[in-house]
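Preliminary data (for renewal application), adenosine-5'-diphosphate complex.
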Amino acid sequence: MSIVIKTEGLTFSYSEQEHNILDNLSMEVKKGEILAILGLSGSGKSTLCYCLSGIIPHVYSGKLSGEVRIDGHSTQEMDMTMIATKLGIVFQNPETQLFFPMVESELAFGPENLCIDRDEIKKRIDLTLDLLNIKEKRNEKTGHLSGGQKQLIALASVLTLKPKILIFDEVMSQIDEKGKNAIKDIILQLKKEGKTVIMVSHNLDNIDIADRIMTLKNGRLKRFEESL
Ligand SMILES: Nc1ncnc2c1ncn2[C@@H]1O[C@H](COP(=O)(O)OP(=O)(O)O)[C@@H](O)[C@H]1O
Ligand SMILES: [Mg+2]
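Predicted structure:
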């Protein structure tokens, strides 16, 4: 099985902090798997997501050493636009991801930025809304949607970029049971399409769909079984 993300000796601390949030962390993510990363609040899960998605070092800075490779390329050597074509991240709070008043413009923004032509963008939006079962939301105002629906739009805005790898950072923590099950079904569907999914959680409830579970503690990842 091929490896889509590999980190080697990944070590990170935020600016003006001594403490390493990630400490010599090495991991591999296999193509097509659902990998769950479990850890207590404050254990560095989001920081790890930022490193895996290039947000660190391209957006947030700090002291970074070691390497993160996506498809064999170091994130330090790729720009965010190139990374966005390979990997998409959905944040815990959808408000941080949504910028436009209307759903359709939100979904078109990413591919427009990549200069993809209008017909293709329309096709991608149609397919994504269909996959997420939210076709009727196309012309709605984002601000009028519930938290769970906003989370789906945030996910949709990532999917229109057609990334092969998706990171979900605690996306289920603010939504009801029905919303959680909808997101789990979507993750399983994405896996069926051959995508790789990394899902981060602080409890076991939401990760029954994972192929593999790792726990993050003291800046390192361990197999879940070893952490019991
Ligand atoms: N932008 C930041 N600047 C400084 N410290 C931060 C920043 N973001 C997170 N931290 C600190 O890093 C640690 C890990 O945070 P985080 O990665 O958000 O953990 P988790 O997602 O597991 O809750 C925490 O102690 C947090 O206070
Ligand atoms: Mg977090």
